[in-house]
Amino acid sequence: MDLQQAWSLPVLISQPLPFVKAFVEAIDGAIRAHHPCSPGLSTIQRSWLGLCLMGILVTNSVCWARFERASLGRYSLAALSWMFRHAKLPWALLLQKSVQVVLREHGITWGSLVVDDADKGRSKTTHRLA
Questions:
Q1: Please, what is the Cα angle at 83 between 72 and 97, to 5 degrees?
Q2: pLDDT tens-digit readout, 25-72
Q3: What is the model's pLDDT at position 113?
Q4: Is 24 helix (H, G, I), strand (E, B) or coil?
Q5: Among 11, 2, 1, which Cα is nearest to 70's?
Q6: CA distance 54 to 77
Q7: Alpha carbon separation from 78 to 47, 85, 116, 124 (Å, rounded)
């Protein structure tokens, strides 16, 4: 990693890219449209969600410790995980609306969406899954 990349990492983590901001705003708009009387996501929740998405993109993982290192300590592991555990986020609605936003963005109007929650380890060399 060269010096330019090293200095751009914290900027990427702390300030979401425009497409991440647009995605988070689209999810918030979908939640507000689903429940017109609902306040939607708060500013802090939108910022945290954007930070998490940026962390996933930059570190290629879902790991609070890596997010903390990638932000050069600006965000602590404890604060990130606390927000995840204690925030009053509508998780089921957040998942539903984010999937709808992705499908709408890509023009997908039909198909089957399957979630694998079997907790079975999968091998990357497996050619056929049951």
A1: 110
A2: 999 999 999 988 888 899 989 988 998 999 999 888 888 889 888 888
A3: 80
A4: helix
A5: 11
A6: 15
A7: 17, 10, 29, 32
Answer for the pair 50, 16: CB distance below 8 angstroms, yes or no: yes
Counting other chains too, the contacts that 54-57 makes at CB distance below 8 Å and 24 or more residues apart are 54/12, 54/13, 54/16, 54/17, 54/20, 55/13, 57/12, 57/17, 57/20
Indicate the helix (H) or strand (E) that contains 130.
none
Q: Which residue has the tokens 């914290």?
A: 10
Residue 80 to residues 13, 22, 98, Cα–Cα distance (Å): 13, 22, 21
Determine the Cα–Cα distance for residues 87 and 4; give it in Å rounded to an integer. Answer: 35
pTM, full prediction: 0.74
State which amino acid sits at residue 5. Q
Contacts of 90 (CB under 8 A, 6+ apart): 31
Residue of 4 and 91 predicted with greater confidence: 91
Cβ contact 16:24 at 8 Å: yes
As given in the structure block, the two tokens for residue 121 are 């380890």
Q: Is the pLDDT of residue 128 over 50?
A: yes
